[in-house]
Write a structure and sequence with these properties.
Oligomer: single chain
Helix content: 55-70%
Length: 287
Amino acid sequence: MTQLKAPTTYLKQIEILRSRGCHVTDEQFCIKILSQINYYRLSAYFLPFRKSDENYLPDTDFKKIYQIYEFDRYLRSYLFAAIEEVEVYLRARFAYYHAHKYSEIGYLNAANYNNKHDHDKFQTLIKAEIEKNKKTLFVQHHLKNYEGKFPIWVITELFTFGMLSYFYSDLRTPDQKQLAREMYGTIPQNLISWLRCCTDLRNICAHYGRLYYRIFSAIPANLPELEITSKRRLYGVVLALRALYPDVDKWNNGIYILLRDLIQSNSDVINLEHIGFPIDWESKLKK
């Protein structure tokens, strides 16, 4: 087994950065940032500037890397806020539809799902969320007064984004088609794809993961604005988020404006190719 690296001081970390070609002009500023942001975490933002020999490209500057880090942090917060609205919307629409078609606890009946549905796994996920939130007042209320039975409009409040995606993809085909058509004017295959993309995005944002220069595992389906080179970059996932976002005006006058201003104000340090954004992204990103 390869021996783990020994811990290093802030000054040693600066020495390592300089030895690889990173310009550090203000040591005190650098130490301040390294004391606030783990060196290992920050080092991921050097990836676009790293050569095959582990050294950095010419003109790699610590303050520039930190600005990209801050750009990424704001980007993550804006997208996470948009994901929140999508998640709340999905909970409301899925619960309303399912309750009126299959009753308030119809979600507990395996017959109301398609053939690939693993009902034991689904119930295990639900029980885990109930246990995790057992000190929450509305969970305590239903455990005490309703023998632990939760109507779907209550239980979906405990669903993660991933569980909402799982729930939809396991619905019977007629139900998938009706919800996809009513909510987004699309087909189930597209909605399943967009939900998966946004599940990944949501999890990255929730854990403060890096979005800049990231390769995503899922490719969003049927988005004409998406070019081949952007399919696994952030731009593709943002388009999937836009497709799921429930309010056109709020997107165009809120999320879009925030993204536009953030990208424009950091145009001196970011590379649009690193996030998959095309040159004409501003006209394409509006709903």
